[in-house]
Amino acid sequence: MKTIYRTILRINRVRAVLAFLNAFYYLKIQRKKPKVYDGTMQHVAVNTLKSNLRIVSKNIDLPKHPTAQYRFGIGLNLGNPKSDMLIEPINAVLKANLVDVSKLKVLSIGSRSLGELLNLEAHGFKNKNITGVDLFSINERILVADMHDLPFEDDYFDIVICGWVLSYSDKKEKAIAEIVRVLKNKGICSIGASYSPESNEQQRIRRGYLIGSETKIQNTKYIEDLFGEKIDKVYFRVDPERLEIHSQIVFTASISK
After folding, report:
1. For the chain, where are the alpha helices, taking DSSP H only?
2. Domain containing 160: what range?
């Protein structure tokens, strides 16, 4: 049954439906507002919270995302299929080394909705060992926290995924230092970022505001350099091959402490 359950969860539409139902129950049935981080967020780029809240609800005072779709005011794209790009390289390393993933503790930074946590389950990680953090939450499995000040002990997690979140940091070296702190020695992290050929000003004109921080992530070397001497092994990297189009950046490595 567990195998069937995980197989079904691999389907993005299934995760999207489950995450939508969770959001609908929380926002419409219970009539609650999202829990929102109430700290200073001094290292978080302007508009980050509002921009990401639009994934769940369209009642945000920013221009609508060009690909966003809603029903009952709740986002429909909550399955988070992009997280496959972060999880699958990690799983390849673990399976190649015969590691039992069900025993590993996993942190998802910037979970946004339940979809990313369900995708981790689909890849074999246990529900009880998966923790999400974000600046807002509509699910008890996602803690409200700032990635620059994670509420966990040192050396707590075996795996950290940080999907399309680092770009929103105005102090990326501090965010990476927190990832290193909460990871165990030889723990693995996987980081994703979007590459854009647009300048900040071009993006402001097209979208009406700047997405993320002024300092853009252009390639995996930039991410690798943020770790300094803490990199143990680089397992996987994807860099933009055509600099004139939008694409994705993925960096997966283990750290040494």
Report:
1. 2-9, 12-24, 48-53, 84-96, 114-122, 172-182, 200-207, 220-227
2. 1-257
Q: Which residues contact 67 (CB under 8 A, 6 or more apart)?
A: 77
With vertex at residue 160, the alpha carbon angle to CA 170 and CA 156, rounded to the nearest 5 degrees, is 105
Q: In the structure encoding, which two tokens stand for residue 229, read together?
A: 């001497």
Residue 204 neighbours by CB under 8 Å, 6+ apart: 210
* pLDDT tens track for 49-105: 988 888 888 866 777 666 778 999 999 999 999 999 999 999 999 999 999 999 999
* Eight-state DSSP code of residue 28: I
Domains contained in the chain, number: 1
CATH number at residue 119: 3.40.50.150
Q: How far apart are CA 174 and CA 41, in angstroms?
A: 13
d(CA 78, CA 72): 14
Convert the pLDDT of each residue in 203-226 to its tens digit: 888 888 888 999 999 999 999 999
Q: Supply φ then ψ for residue 91, to 5 degrees.
A: -60, -35
> Who contacts 16 (Cβ-Cβ below 8 Å, separation ≥6)?
76, 77, 78, 79, 115
What is the 8-class DSSP label of residue 64? Answer: P
Mean pLDDT across the chain: 94
Tokens 């994807």 found at: 238
Asked if residue 112 lies in contact with residue 80, where contact means CB atoms within 8 angstroms, the answer is yes
Contact (CB, 8 A) for 123 and 7: no
Query: End-to-end distance of the chain based on CA atoms, in angstroms?
Result: 39
Q: In which element (H, E) is residue 163 found?
A: strand 157-163
Q: Count CB neighbours of 243 within 10 A.
A: 11
What are the tokens at 129? Answer: 């060992």
The pTM assigned to this predicted structure is 0.95
